[in-house]
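Box 3.1 A note on notation
Throughout this textbook, protein chains are presented in two layers. The first layer is the amino acid sequence; the second is a token string describing backbone geometry. Keep the layers aligned when reading.
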Amino acid sequence: MPEGHTLHRLARLHQRRFGRAPVRVGSPQGRFTDGAAAVDGRVLQKADAWGKHLFHRYQGGKVVHVHLGLYGTFTEFALSESAGAPDPVGQVRMRMIGGEYGTDLRGPNLCEVIEAAEVADVVARLGPDPLRPDADPEAAWKRISKSRRPIGALLMDQTVIAGVGNVYRSELLFRHGIDPHRPGTALTGAEFDALWADLVALMTVGVRRGKIVVVRPEHDHGAPSYRQGRPRTYVYRRAAEPCRVCGTAVRTEELEGRNLFWCPTCQR
């Protein structure tokens, strides 16, 4: 599932490609026909994100709300002066065209039109987003410090912190030597502050570079486990492989329905 940095990167791209101008919106697949008609031809005033939720805010108060889920993706294309937009390929839920570009949305978990006032209702169900300048880490800390749930589960709970997925969860806890099974109540304020600051930094890099970068330079030495097709991570998707720091086999198990990865030596 795309993590929060992906949605913020998309928001910036869509603002740059389509913002402050009328946008043609359609639904080649037919599942978003009414929603597309409600915003077709309107000016896209702003595109922004909160966690894993993307909002296209149109003139007149209509907002297209997208959650990519596990399989959703946007595919961009340049418009041709001679041929115009290419024919849709596959099940395109929503197509946007404006200026010199277009983009197709396929396979989202959610694609709907809501009123501007309803955005607040969506956001109210989410925790603070580390990538937003108005994020309030204290709100996340209050929930974590009062919960007996494992910190590995709390970090994935979008009502606690919005935008964190399995990669950031696994890698962040490794970078700070924290056992993912530790209850939230056992986390110290200093540990949380360090986690939050690192999360902001890592996700900011993710927005800028378009990929998750988590391995520190001193550990990024081109080991055999960096072979093509394998993740450039400390523990995520590296079950049974040697820890990059201590050599202990990375462990995995299911925690609240998602695969968890950690080093039992480095994360005590």
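Residues 189-209 form the longest helix (21 residues). The beta strands are 24-26, 44-50, 53-58, 62-67, 73-78, 92-98, 101-106, 110-115, 251-255, 258-262.
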